[in-house]
Amino acid sequence: MSHALHLLHRQGLVSESGRRGFEVTQLDPGRIRQLYEVRGAIDALAARLAAGRVKTDAAGRAELEAALQAGRAIDDKTPLAQLIALDVDFHSAIYRLSGNSAIEEMIAPQWPHMRRSMATVLAELDYRDSAWTEHETIAAHVFSGNAKAAEAAALAHALGAGRMTEERLKADAKAA
After folding, report:
1. Does the first or last residue of the chain, that is N or C, have fewer Cβ atoms within 10 Å of its Cβ?
2. How far is CA 62 from CA 57, 139, 168, in A?
């Protein structure tokens, strides 16, 4: 097995399928919900810490502002891969602004699963707008230094996305 396939297998992104080699694993709705629950706790912590540092970390603030501005430019023609990348950039900017490098280290191994799950909901045009509206709310609380509100908004955003993703994956499995 090549190193790349071994890594994908270890991350649970591919599985062995006998003589045919490997196949991409299906997303497990329950597992995705669990990942979003953990991500919610991590995102809430990151947003709370970022709100506490936003006034003293000009570079971190500028990075979050740039990520938010890039997200404002999306429309119904924005490719799905770009939407996912912009979403990850937004959350990563908050992680870095938090000043706690362990946050990015903890979430990094889960991004491949999260990116795959994001595709299920970001493909819907309605959610594209509401996701960025939620990002705007989180960022507004971070920029104002309101740690409690930033924490609550980040948690609600992650848990809502997790619920929506789980429901969509279950509906897709029933339709298949």
Report:
1. C
2. 9, 12, 35
